[in-house]
Queue: 2 jobs
Job 1
Amino acid sequence: MKLLIVEDEYSLRHSMIEFLTTSSYLCESSSNYQDALEKIELYDYDCIILDIMLPDGSGLDLLKSLKQNNKSDGIIIISAKGELDDKINGIEMGADDYLAKPFHLSELAVRVAAIIRRKSFQGKSNLIIGNISIDIQGKRVTIENKELDLTQKEYQLLIYLAINKNRVLSKNAIAQHLWGDDMDFPDNYDFIYAHIKNLRKKIVAAGSEDCIRSIYGEGYKMQIA
Amino acid sequence: MKLFTKYNRINITATIIIFLAGSVAFYFVLDYVLIRQLDASLRSEKQEITEYIQLHQQLPEIQNTKEQWIQITKASQPISNSITKTIPAYNKSENEREYIRQLIFMVTVNKENYLVAVNKSETETDELLKLIIPLTLSMVALILLFNYLINRRLITSIWQPFYNTINNIKDYAANQQSLTLSKEPIDEINLLNESLNKMTEQIHKDFYALRSFTENASHEMQTPLAIIRTKVESLYQLAEGKEIMMQQLLSIEDACLKLSKLHQSLLLLTKLENKQFILNELIQLKSILEQKCEERTELLESKHIKLQIDAANFEIHFHQHLAEILISNLLNNAIRYTAIGGTISISLFQKQLIVSNTGTTGSLDLDKVFTRFYKASDTGTGLGLSIIKEICTSAGFSISYVYEKNMHHFIIGFQA
């Protein structure tokens, strides 16, 4: 899977490249409008991560030219303009998703994975993590043909952990992924722990090994060999 | 008080005082002059009598009239000077009391002393003086009436441009175009208009400069924050097996999150103050309320908070995004300050939305509760309630806070 990351801020660009490379994506990057325009004209990408405010142009113009050339690359806008109007604007112009800065890389990974799944496999592929198989379209989770009965939140949590497998995810990132960011989280994230605990119980009960590890209760990690 | 009323009040008082003082002075002067005239005629009478006696060595025949009469009596003892005085007397023919001016002097006829009293009635003088009072009063009334009529015409026509200017600036808001008040023939008003034009132009410029500064500053800050956050996320991967590092990274991430929320909140407040939202969408508050409560189910469960909702279905003119923020903030606030095992009750009706929660700390500071950065505890940004207040203000809703029977109540009235 090939990604293009268009972001002018060096540090942020590299963090994204580093993070997404470990998720076994092939990452290319651009730091300005001209370079990005050339790249999207020459190559096809599975997903383009697009910053709107570039030093020599607007990411929205890149989006326009992609749509004019009937390119089917998935597009996710990342912008410092976290306002609703910008969000609606971006989506209306044909972007697949919108992520406001600052965001968690793990969140970006989930969004990118969702876009690629939708674009490349029409959502028909199963996500397989160890011996857990997730049918995204049917929203079914099976372990060795035994179906798991998960709540909505447990299902979301499982996908989030699975896509970011072998990575430590902080309580903050998990809470924000599951509940969005207009919510006000209490200092203790006990309610996340409860969800993790239930999910682990159900996975173990279905006969799989206990692959979710707690990192001192501050973060969690799905460990898959 | 209106300019015209104020002016009239001063004008009328001054006129009345001046006329009263004037007429009192006029009365005394006239009285003095008339009495002197009377005395002069009495003296000339004396002169006539004295001359007659010197010539004829006998008392004159007395011809008394109604206005003047003379009494001659034998003097028991001689007086050296003549005496002039006013005495009260009774007029039988008119049946009333009146004052008489009297001049008494002594004459000597055939070595006998006689006292001669020349009397003159003061009635004419009195009547003249009495006339002055109604005359003055009617003069005052007439002058006041004409003053009033003239001033009313004059003030309204002269001050018309001033009132036009006032009407123009009354509804001026900073986010509007600057004013263009017209040139006027009166210098002062022209100066006023020019100054106002200049001032509003400056306000307008400053307003836009500040607005774009706030937005840009806010956006520019999000990128470094994004960098910090992503770097922290990478560091998490190295923190396995190091509990302290994990904890420290988590607090960096928390601070980051708080900073970015603070920015969003300040930006929102600025936009609300600048009236950048158009509130004309028809909104179902009930569905938003239910959705926001649903999102918080796990949070409520973890704090064992009992939630009671009593909501009616209706639509109001509002803004979808603002309605979501309003309800989210109210819920966040209620959840944050409710102790474990507490109760939150929400009632939503056509007239008002009341969000109540149990609180053990007593009433919040009524004066500060909606002030920015006011916090009852050290959690949160301290902007939630001021955002709620600004949203209500811009939508024309009323908001109030009451503490009653160990419950905090936030009441939003939709028909403020």
Note: Residues 188-273 of chain B form one domain.
Job 2
Amino acid sequence: MKGRQPDPAALAELRDILGEEGLRRDMLLEYLHALQDHHGHLSTRLLAALAQAMRLSQAEVYEVASFYHRFRIVGEAEAAPAGRRVDVCDGLVCQLAGADALAAALAADGGDGRIGRGACMGRCEQAPVAAADDSYIGQADPARIAAGLRGEIVEDRAPEVTFADYREGGGYDLLQQCRNGDHEPDWIIGRLSDSGLRGLGGAGFPTGRKWQLVRAEPAPRLLVVNADESEPGTFKDRYYLERDPHRFIEGMLLAAWTVAADEIYIYLRDEYPHLRRLLQRELVVARQAGIAVPEVHLRRGAGAYVCGEESAMLESIEGKRGLPRQRPPYPSQSGLFGRPTLINNVETLYWVRDAVNDGGDWPGQRSFSVSGRVREPGVKLAPAGISLRRLIDDYCGGMADGHQLAAFLPGGASGGILPAELADQPLDFGSLEDHGGLLGSAAVIVLSDRDDIRAAVANLMRFFADESCGQCTPCRLGTEKAVAMLAAGPADAAALADLAQVMADASICGLGHAAANPLRCALRHFPGAIA
Amino acid sequence: MPTLTIDGTEVTVEAGCTVLQACEEAGVEIPRFCYHDRLSIAGNCRMCLVEMEKAPKPIASCAMPVGEGMVIRTDTAAVRKARQGAMEFLLINHPLDCPICDQGGECDLQDQALAFGRDASRYVENKRAVKEKNLGPLIRTMMTRCIHCTRCVRFATEIAGVEELGATYRGEDTEIGTYVEAALTSEMSGNLVDVCPVGALTSRPYAFTARPWELRKTESIDVHDAVGCNIRVDSRGAEVMRVLPRLHEDVNEEWLGDRSRHAVDGLRRQRLDRPYLRVDGKLRPATWDQAFAAIASRMDGLAGERLAAIAGDMVDAETMLAMKDLMTALGSPNIDCRQDGAKLGGRHRGGYLFNTSIAGIEEADAILLVGCNPRWEATLINARIRKRWLAGGLSIGLIGPRVDLTYGYRYLGAGPATLAEVAGGDNDFAGLLQAAEKPMIIVGAGALSRPDGAAVLHLARRIAEATGMNGGDWNGFNVLHGAASRVGGLDLGFLPGEGGRDTAGILAGAGRGEIDLVWLLAADELDMGQFGDAFVVYQGHHGDAGAHRADVILPGAAYTEKDGTWVNTEGRAQQGRRATDPPGEARQDWAILRAFSDVIGQTLPYDNLAALRARMAELAPSFGRLDEVAPGEMGSFGVEGEVDATPFASPLGDYYLANAICRASSVMAECSRLYLAAGEGTGTDG
């Protein structure tokens, strides 16, 4: 009665795919990816074989596999899906760009692919976006999707700044100086603190202080790079990695050197397969050019926004479901595998070299991922504290033709939604909170008079409901209930406000705390659209 | 020892405890669903939120370690609001079906909704529905009621050691279940019902039979094994409706094995409710007078050495002493309380006790298991070993049948040869025991209930001595008993007297015509075909093997129907209390013997239970120290001698059918069919 026993053929097949070496618990997600890459889905017979080979219970393997939306489990009784799979981005920006109509058209057309939806794919400047299996297609329309299915759309390309270019511009000099003993770790930390560099993943924790805290913990220590960029509207990490990966790599190596981490984990969202290949290539290039690189574990996410939350990410790297941990202890004390762990976002590390070199003179510009109703969406490097109006007019070529600014999201789905009247407020940490907004990852989504605020809020709340890990009561039930109430017609504003309050006060992690922001902002700034 | 202020009152607590525990210490009640003090902290229900000075948001008190100078408030408007919110959320999808829910009246959600919730919900949308799960014949699921506290998952993986429960999918799609829809293979699955704070998991056998407020609750002691688990017997009228564990930190903590909990339907079936007499080969109903007269007439003129008595595995000490006194009065030395033939007993208690004590297991750093399957023979002792193993730094070796014990161990060998190796220092586990600070050896019935049992015991003793298991306050030598009656019997000397016969001798003597009358005290685990022409009196509560062989049946009381004393494997005497009356004409067992002694003019010298118990305490001081464990003297025990090459065998063929009560239970029959007959053992599939 202990459940299905794996058949010998499945075990043999598993060995063919994963190799003969001993399997490691923390590699569970990687194995699931390997199996899915091979078959296009996960069959329960291979899951049973994997459980046996890893000496895990079947329940444990299944709970992990079913947690991540990128894994497609096919039961024994179900037929293996035929044909290829097309997912149309479900994010707000793509919705504004007609993703719903695109998905409907594809479904009506039939074709040879299966049509689904996927959470924000991080290419919002190219909206609408679709994925044909692992090929991502910007400005998607049926013709381009067909081309993508034929393999004609490839995102992989050499970085704009190659290793040689980067080296020529003085790249890796700072790292070499550190390694030669020219600088002390404390000097690096001091310069970072002087520069005012703060975590650019969204929380804005002072980087120098974070490094200091981790360094003060007993060795062995680890470095984890959060490359799970998945806040809807955010694509700056992708942008920088595509263009200038070595600036990031040097920052990463400086971090590892400063806190004396002997191993590095990079947790990269699975929707960026071209960056996985790029990082693999460029790390080899750096090593071949004589840059010593400690062991780097490049791990794939699997479609779970909550894994961008640092403690959920640690769980995921350990091969588990991405449930945020209780704090204390903090990751700096007990992080990955229980070791003191420094966790930094890609962009934070990207700026480390400049921040250290410039110290107090570092200009501290901010990378805004701008999308939505502007003429020229994209990553805009602009002074911190710039207003939305200047950002649109000076950096984005103004509003898109025929659109008037009506509302904007300053920090992706989590940052809330603000009215056009606040377009002159500085966009910075600390300046939007009074109005219910958060800068977060500086993902600015611009809405116009032609957009439906209620539909936008519903899209954002559905995103959080899809992405809630389900661990804690307020987030699990609150996100789902908000979706249901918004769908049901005019809502009881007082009940919605209480719902939002409980989510913000009582959830375990930042996802739950922030999930109510769009709702709270809308109730405050656009009451007519909700109630 | 940090000091913190809770609602204005200073309280000093142990470092490392949580704010929730500190609040309890301060006498402040904190509502909770997911928190359980014996399980890992999940912190997911968010019911235990409190305010902490300087924290921007309320904190989950169950997950927050205390710190010096913390200022906690549990009585503010914000805290009330947060709790009301969490409560309202939990009820968003929880069906309001309390009138048809078995948890009603003892439901945390119900109680806390009343104490901390709002009076009405503002959420009118449909509630979600979740498919039922198959968690075996003991647990009924209503997963729509689940509030995702994950206590059950944590219990199964942490305490029971079966990783078959999990939470699949995510967000509001999350479901608790066994992924393969298989019944949960644990002998501790009944505890899932206790840990579930709502009515998602309820007892299947007890389903819709009673409401908690209708039940009379009697605190008693379990007798399905020799652990001495503390239980509460819930009865209504003459019927035992259910058995629940009762907290005893040193014995069963707050858990109970499935056999002890769910064999209660066996108390209603196959009962001996009137005396019977065998007439012309057939058992016919009789009166007490007729039954006593028949025995007296068969006994008349028999020399003491032609009489014998054997006590079964669930008999209370009071009954055994009355039997012993009666046999002594009749001049018979042929009495034995070891129906399995274990080579145990004697003056030195240390030779037959679990000397380390159950709680003491948590201090051990090496354990050698010899000829036992604690998972079946003493489920809660196995759980304690697992608890110690999970804490890390424990080496376990096993000699005997290879079984799945829910923890890792080194398999050393199958039988006495390996034991001799360890004793001779020829096995590296001996070195490991030697190096350990607090090593233990646990010898089970599988090693002792065999002809060479005394020599095996001697070898075990040698290992204990050679590896320094006795020293200072530590005694690492342990005998694991499977029978609740056994230690009490040994303490009272319910053993062959001078020139007397043991169980094997009684059977052989009866077969050869040297024993004419055998009195079986609820002894059923014997080969009844060996009694030859002997006249068999069976005094017991169930129509099992012994009753079928009997010439006279005297209907006695089952453990829930008597005030009795049992001594557990540690030597801890505990008193069970009568929850219901024995059925029909059945009587208290010691009183039956007292009445019979009167009939034959050998009146036993006690008229009431108090007098009998006074005599017990006189004979064996352990009975005068209830619920205490006294160090057992080691003295000499065991006999140096040849050991047989036969591997140790498990004495228990089927966990679910271990005794007459279990064999009368249809619930146990169902479990046995499902878990064992299918060839998928819980404890023997290695």
Note: The longest helix of chain B spans residues 77-92.
